[in-house]
Amino acid sequence: MIKNRKIATKLLTLNIISVFIIILFTFIGIDTSLKDRDNTENLILCADRIYVELSEHFNIENTNNKNYIESLKKEYNNLEIIIYDKNENIRLKTDGVDEAKIDLNQMQYIMRNKNGDFNPFMKEYKLIDNGQTFELVIFKYRSSNSTVESYIMRILFPIIIVLIIEYLIIRRKVKQLIYITDGIITMSNENLEYRLELNSNDEFGILSHEINKMSSNLKIKIDNERNMYKLKNELIANISHDLRTPLTSLIGYMEIAKNLDLKLEEKNDYIKKSLEKAERIKILICELFEYSKLESGEVTINKIPINIIEMLEQTIGEYSNLAYNNYLDIVKLYKEFEIITNIDGNIMIRVFENLLDNAIKYSKKNSKIYIDVINDENYSIITLENTMEESIECDSNMLFERFYRGDKSRNQKISGSGLGLFISKSIVDLHGGEIHIETEGHRFKVYIKLPKG
């Protein structure tokens, strides 16, 4: 299970930042709108103050009126000021007004229909000076950036920016997902050598790595299955040959033995040869039966304390004649007479028989087979060393594979199913032990390590 969900963390962080930015800019927009000197509320307030100022200090005859209203304009947000009489003659105005006579209706019409980048403001008042009534018009052409639309844009801008950033991030992740999907499709088309190259520390990176690992493991399994299928075919061919040859000889010898004209000595010789062929067939069938049981997991072991030296002596005694006939000497290097080990003797004896049989089959003529036992505190270690006719040119671990028989050209004349070492390793594994092979040139040495307990 992935503990650090980096994509989820990134998206959560991005959403938190997005909400923060939106809230921040919203407050900024509201604050800006409140502080905007050209907002309507502020302009009304300024216009009212100008009116109050003029109501208190205005005198149409005062020669300083021009400077006075200009100072009011500067003080109150650059509002334009017009004072006109009942005949619509402008009596006083700020510099921003060009007209000498005012048409209020036309001015209101213009204000209402002003186009472009302006949002006009206008307010009217009445002034009384020395019994005369004057009209006061205060107005301003405001820039449209002070309108409600500008405030909305100030809020929408950060939202748009956040959406763009989220889109770019999600787009990148979608691209990675599409890349992974295409890679899986490529692998599913039996291209298991294809590898995803995604340098990312998030879940997509982990997913790519795991898919690559899965593809690699699957390729190894498929290759192993293909090799196994090939080896099985070879086994069938080998077993067929190894069964057919002695079976043909057996039938031939029995046919000859039926001949009534043969002497008793000759008949006994043919019967002996027939028994040898029958024994060879029996060994092959037994190996196949043992392999089948080990593969199905039906084999159970019953460990009891057994003197492993005695078991070795028994095996050596059974194979000494075969070794002698092949011009081989079996040399016992161990000195102990008793090493007690908890094993199932009924199946462990098969291991010793397989190893010694292989050593006799493949050893160089007129050489020696060395057998030794090391009495370790917790383990019994058995070694068997011989000199091969030819050097081993493969990984020694391959020798433990089922149906493997090494170089075919060298082993065509040597009977066997290729199951002996596989069976031996399976039995040793069932005992919780270890078995491995060391080769150096023509030297071949097998190590078996069995726990005593």
UniProtKB/TrEMBL annotation:
<keyword id="KW-1003">Cell membrane</keyword>
<dbReference type="InterPro" id="IPR050398">
    <property type="entry name" value="HssS/ArlS-like"/>
</dbReference>
<dbReference type="Pfam" id="PF00512">
    <property type="entry name" value="HisKA"/>
</dbReference>
<dbReference type="InterPro" id="IPR004358">
    <property type="entry name" value="Sig_transdc_His_kin-like_C"/>
</dbReference>
<keyword id="KW-0808">Transferase</keyword>
<keyword id="KW-0902">Two-component regulatory system</keyword>
<dbReference type="InterPro" id="IPR003594">
    <property type="entry name" value="HATPase_dom"/>
</dbReference>
<keyword id="KW-0597">Phosphoprotein</keyword>
<keyword id="KW-0472">Membrane</keyword>
<dbReference type="GO" id="GO:0005524">
    <property type="term" value="F:ATP binding"/>
</dbReference>
<keyword id="KW-0418">Kinase</keyword>
<keyword id="KW-1133">Transmembrane helix</keyword>
<dbReference type="InterPro" id="IPR036097">
    <property type="entry name" value="HisK_dim/P_sf"/>
</dbReference>
<dbReference type="Pfam" id="PF02518">
    <property type="entry name" value="HATPase_c"/>
</dbReference>
<feature type="domain" description="HAMP">
    <location>
        <begin position="171"/>
        <end position="223"/>
    </location>
</feature>
<feature type="transmembrane region" description="Helical">
    <location>
        <begin position="12"/>
        <end position="30"/>
    </location>
</feature>
<dbReference type="GO" id="GO:0000155">
    <property type="term" value="F:phosphorelay sensor kinase activity"/>
</dbReference>
<feature type="transmembrane region" description="Helical">
    <location>
        <begin position="151"/>
        <end position="170"/>
    </location>
</feature>
<keyword id="KW-0067">ATP-binding</keyword>
<dbReference type="Pfam" id="PF00672">
    <property type="entry name" value="HAMP"/>
</dbReference>
<keyword id="KW-0812">Transmembrane</keyword>
<dbReference type="InterPro" id="IPR003661">
    <property type="entry name" value="HisK_dim/P_dom"/>
</dbReference>
<dbReference type="InterPro" id="IPR005467">
    <property type="entry name" value="His_kinase_dom"/>
</dbReference>
<protein>
    <recommendedName>
        <fullName>histidine kinase</fullName>
        <ecNumber>2.7.13.3</ecNumber>
    </recommendedName>
</protein>
<dbReference type="InterPro" id="IPR003660">
    <property type="entry name" value="HAMP_dom"/>
</dbReference>
<dbReference type="GO" id="GO:0005886">
    <property type="term" value="C:plasma membrane"/>
</dbReference>
<keyword id="KW-0547">Nucleotide-binding</keyword>
<feature type="domain" description="Histidine kinase">
    <location>
        <begin position="238"/>
        <end position="453"/>
    </location>
</feature>
<dbReference type="InterPro" id="IPR036890">
    <property type="entry name" value="HATPase_C_sf"/>
</dbReference>
